[in-house]
C-alpha cells in the first residue's frame, strides 16, 4: 500500500517519470501555458504534410487482408487501444455542430482477426458547467449563448480556421455539487456546450473576467468540470474504458474507401465513421474480456559514435536497427530482422537487410514500420533516445517521408520537449513523439514507475529479472566493429538484436502489457496515459463516471499548493529486540479503502465546516445521522446518502474478489495472466483513491477525507492493541500475557508468548476474528503470517523469517534495511543480507557476528573484491553547486583518456581510495579499473565508518546491546591492516623493491637474494610451498569460472570476450583475478621449477 | 625384494608441461586452435565417409538459405539451464537458500549448438543423442538446414584419435600397477589395506613371480585429499587457503610410503583434483620439496596430469579422473567407463575443458587432442573398478581402465602391457 504513506506531494510510483503538465506534478503555470501554446502551434504547421502510401513488400510483414465489409449488413467489432481527437470538418448526417471546425474523436484498434481499424466518431461536443446566478432563468439561455459566442469568437487571436460558431448551446440543468453534503435538493447550473475543446477554457475565463450580459453577473459563479480533458470527457460520457471492445452495429456506420467521401486518412486497413451515440461500448467482462492479437514492435538502434563523444544525430550515423515483432499472446516474435549499413553476414533465424547508404537504411526502416503497422512500439529508452535520434538523423540527412511513422497518412511524427519540475527529481526533460494510433510503450518507463532497483540499465534489469547477463559492447568499440568486415558487423547485429529482444522478454516476464491493459480497463483511461500521466487521472476518470450516473458534478479546483500538514499513520512504539519466539502479525485488509467504506467517507457525504446547523434546520439532519471522525470532521451516514467513493471502492474490491475467484479456477495460462493483472490493477486502484483525496496539488483534494482516514487508522491500531492485550492474558487462561511489540499503519505484531508456530498461528487467527468483530463492516483484521524469529530494529525497520504455514518459511522479509539503496556499495547490502540470513534462517547470532567481523577484517586487509566496493552515480550534469565525487572523477578520467571517459548521462562507477588526511571525500573517488591496474589502496576506513558502521550497529544492537560498537568495530579483528603499495602517485617512483622471505616476510640476508626462503624458514619449505600453491589454486578456480562464464554469456566460444558491462558483478573480478594470478604465479616460481 | 624386469621407459608428457604463464589470455584461443586442428584431421575422414559430392561448408556460407545439404565441422556447445554459474552463485537474489551444487545437470531440454569459427546453428535429430553430448567436442555432421533455423543431423563423425603403433609380442608378462585416491588425510581408516598393498608390491605374499613382472606403479591423483574443502561463504575474491597444516602432515606421510615403494619399483605420481597442486589442467608435477625422502630415489618422479608415457611399445595415457567426473556431471552417460570411452571416441582427453573443467588458457595449441591412439587409457579416482578393451572403427584396440579410488575400494588395477589384460586386486581387510 504505497499510496497511504503519502500526504504531501506525489505518491511513490509517480515520482520518476515524465508526465503531462496538468497532472499531479508541480509545475509553474507559465511553462504549463507555454507547453500548451507550443503544441497548438505545432499542430498546424509542423505536423501536417503529405505522407507516402503504404508499400506491401512481404507477406510476412503485412497484416492479414481485411474481410469485405458491408456496413448495412455487417457489424464491426474491434478492441481500441488509443483514443484521441482532432479538429475536423462536420460530416453531413452526423450529430453536433454543422458549421466550421468540429472536434472528431479517433479510435484506433484491432479486430480479433488482426486487422487494424481507425474509427472516426462524430458529434461529441465539449461542455462545462457554471453555477447559475439567482436571477438567471430559462429564458436567458439563448441570450447568454449568443453573447458568449461573440465574446469567444472575438477572443480568438487570428481566426485562421474560420470559426463561425463557438458556443453551441446553453442549458439550465439541475445537478448536485459533489463537494459537501447539502441535502438531496438539486441546484441550478448552466451547462455550456462549445464547438471546440479549447473554447472551454476560453469561455470560462471570459465568464469570470468580463461582463457578458449586462443584467446578470457571472463573475462570482464557480465553474464546474472545465478542467477535464476532452478525450476523458468523451470516454466517460460514452462509457468507453481503456482498451475495451467497441461494436459498430450494422446499419449505423460508414466505411471509407478509395471512392468514398471523405477519403481514408489513415494507414489502417479498415477506416470507418460513426456517430458518438450509435456505437456500443462493451464492458470488459465475460466474452469481452478477450484481447485482440495486436502487434508489438520492439527495436533498438546502434550509432557509430566518435571517440569520447556521446552520439549526436547531426554527426554520427545510424548503422543498425534491429526489430522484433510479436503478436500479443504468442511466445516468439514472428518477425526478427536487422537493418544494417554495409554488408553483414547472415544470422540464422533472423533476416539481415543490408544497405549501402544510410539514407536508404532509414527510408526502408520507416517503410517497414508502416508496413508492419504495429499497435505498440517498445524498446529500452526509445522515448528519450532511439526515436528522437532516428527522427533527428533522418531530418539531418533529408530522408524523404521518414517521419511519417504514425497511422494518419499526413501527420508527421515530431519531437516535443516536456519539461517536468518536481520536488523529488528536480528538473527533468523528456521527449515525446506522436505516433497517431500507435502506443509508445517504453519499457524503461514501466520499470521506473513500478520497480525500485539499484540500477536501470538494460544489463542490470535483465540480470535482476531474468538472471541473465547481457554482453555489453562499449560505445567506443561499436565504431570499430562497424568499420571491420561483414563478420564484425554481424557480431554487432547479434548484440543489437538481443537489445531488441530483451524488452519483449521482460514485458512478457513482468506481464506489463497485460497488467497495464487491465489497469486501463479498470480505471477507464487510455493505455498511453498510464505511462505518461499520474495516478490522479485514473481516480478522476472513475469519479466522473460514478458522479455522472448520480447527477453530481465536480467543481474545478485550482491548486494553492498549501503546505498544510496533517498527522500521518500511527506507529506503536516498537519494543526493539531480537525475538526468538514466533511473532504473529495481524493485518487490516485494504485498510484505507475499507475505512472509507465503513465510515462512508466521501466528497458527497462531507458536512462542510459551519453547515451543520443549517443542515439540521433545513434538511432535518439529526445528530445520530452524522458521524464525527477522530479528526473532528463530520460525514453523513450511509442511510442518509451513500458516498460515491465508497461505491467506487466497493465495486473495485468486489471486482478484485471476482478476479481472484476466477483466477483460482482458470487453467489457461494466458487468461490467468489477464486475471492476475486485473486483480493487481484493482488493488492498486483502490489504494490510489485515498491518495487522490490527499494530493494537495490535485484535481480535488479533500483533507477532511484523507485526514479522517488516517485518524481512523490510528484509533484502530490502538484499539487492536488494547483488545489483544486485555483478552490474551494468563488471567483468561492463556499461556502468557500477550504483548503488542510493534504496530504500523495497517499491521500489528503480537507476541503471544508461545513457543510453537502452530500455536502462534492458531492464536493469531483467533485474535483476528475477535478483533474484526468489534469493527464496522467491511473493516477486517486478518491473520496473515508469523515472523519467527523476528528482529525489530526500529520504526519501519525490521526483519523476520516469514511463515504462512508451519512447515516451511516462505521468505526472509526485510523492511527498511540497507539492501537496495543506490548510493551504497554492494558490500553493505551483501553483508547485511548474509548476517540477516545467519540470524534468522540459521538462528546463529554468534555466526552472524563472526561473519561480520570476518568481512570487516577482510575489508581492512584488502581482501574484498572491488566490485563490492563500487558506488555508482549518474553524471547528470557537470556543474553541481557542491563538488561531487563522481563529477570530479569524470573530469580526471577525461584527462587520462577522453575516449573511454564517462559522458553526460553515463553512470560513473567509483571506489573511495585512501588519501592524505583531510583530503575531501570528493577527491578520493577513483575508477575501479584504474585502482585494480595500479593497486591503488582502498580507503577501508571510509567503507567501515561511512558505509558499514550504521547499518551493522542497527541490526546488531538489539542482540549485542550497548557493546555492539566495541565488539564489531573495535575488536581484535580490526587490528591487522594490509597496506597496499600503489604503483602510481606519491612516493611510488622512489621506491625500490627488495626481495623478502616468503615465509616470514623479512628481508633476505646476503647471499640469499635469489632464494625463496630465508635460512630460518628453509626447513618449512614443503609447508610454505603448499601454502603458495594453495593460494594459486583458488585463484585458478576463480579465473576459470569467471572467464568461461563470459565466454558463454557472449554466445561464442571462438571469439574473444570484449564485453565491458560494468554493471555485471563479475566485471572487476575477472580483471582482478588475472593480476592476482600473475602475482601468485611469480611467488610459486620462486621455489624453482618442479623438475625431476 | 623381487627381481624386476627391465622395460624401456619414455616420458611423453612434455606437451603437458607449462613453460610460461600468461593469464591475460582468454579461452577462445584454445577453442579456436582445437577447431582448426580437428578440422584438418576430420575433413579427409568426412570426405571418405560421406563421399566427395557432399560439400564441407562453413556456416557463414549457408547465408540463411533453407534446404542446403552439406557437411559442417564445428565445436559442440551444449546450452544447459543448470550448468554451474558463478553469476548465479553470487546473485543477490539467490542468496537465500543457496542451491546445493547438482551432482548432475543434464536434462532433456538441453540444447545442442554447433559453432564454427564465426557462427552457430542449433542441431537436432535422433542421432544426436544430445544428453550424451558434451560442450567442446569437435565433430563433423552431415545433414540439412530447415526453415526454423535448425540443422537436421543425419550422420555424425568423430576423430576417434590418431594412429596406433602395433604391439610386438615379447612373451614375458610385464605388469603396470595403477592406483588412485590414496587420500592420506583419511588413511587411518584403511591403514591395514595400505600395508597389505605395500607387501603385495614387494612380493611378500608369496607373489614373488607376479611382483617380479610389475614394471611400474602409477599413482593417479588425490593422494593427499580426495574431496573438496568445505566452502565458507565470504565476499573475498578468492578464498584464502584453509589451514594447510593437516595436508602438510599427510604429505610427509605420503613421502614415506612413496620412498618405500620406489625402492622396489619405479613410481610415477600424478596430482589430482583435490591435491595441493595447481587446479587447472594440465596439473603440473608436485614440487620436489614436498617429497624430500622419495625424491632422493631416481625411481620416483612426480609427473603431470594428464600423464603419458611409453613402456616398451605400449603407449599409456591417463588422468586423475577430472575429465571423466566432469562428463558424468554434464551428460547422462551411465558410467565412468562410458565417459572414458567417449573421450577416446571424440579424440580429445578433456573436451569440457575449459567450459566446466578448469584448464590453462592455451593460445597456440591444444595438448589434449589424442594425436596418437594409446594402448592403455586410464582415469583415476573412479567409484569402482571398470574396464573394457575398446576397439575403434578402424580396429585399433585400447584398454580402458577406470582406476578405483583406493580410499573407497581398497583396490588397485593391474594391466598386462602386452596382452592388455586387466584385473582388479583388492586389499580390503574384511574381504581377505
Provide an overview of this structure:
The complex is a heterodimer of chains A (1092) and B (432). Chain A is an alpha+beta fold and 1092 residues long. Chain A has 27 helices and 34 strands. In chain A, strands 21, 22, 23, 27, 28, 29, 30 and 31 form an 8-stranded antiparallel sheet that branches. Chain A is globular, with a radius of gyration of 34 Å. Chain B has 432 residues and is an alpha/beta fold. Chain B has 2 domains: 9-22 and 163-227 and 244-426, 4-Layer Sandwich (Purple Acid Phosphatase, chain A, domain 2), CATH 3.60.21.50; 28-157, OB fold (Dihydrolipoamide Acetyltransferase, E2P). In chain B, the strands form 3 sheets. Chain B has a 6-stranded mixed sheet. In chain B, strands 11-10-9-8-17-18 form a 6-stranded mixed sheet. In chain B, strands 3-4-5-7-6 form a 5-stranded mixed beta barrel. The radius of gyration of chain B is 23 Å and the shape is globular. The chains are: A alpha+beta (1092), B alpha/beta (432). At the A-B interface, helix 20, helix 21, helix 26 and helix 27 of A face helix 1, helix 2 and helix 5 of B.
In N-to-C order, the SSE pattern of chain B is EHEEHEEEEEHHEHEEEEHHEEEHEE
Q: Give the CA-based shape of chain A.
A: globular
User: Low-confidence parts of chain A lasting 5 or more residues at pLDDT below 50?
Assistant: 1-44, 422-426
What's the number of helices of chain B? 8
CATH class type of the largest domain in chain A: Alpha Beta
Structural category of chain B: alpha/beta
Count of folded domains of chain B: 2
Which two chains touch over the largest interface? A-B, 81 and 78 residues
Question: What is the average of the pLDDT values of chain A?
Answer: 85
- Structural category of chain A is alpha+beta
Question: What fraction of the residues of chain A are assigned to beta strands by DSSP?
Answer: 15-25%
CATH superfamily of the largest domain in chain A: Ribonuclease H-like superfamily/Ribonuclease H
Strand order of the largest sheet of chain B: 1-12-13-14-16-15
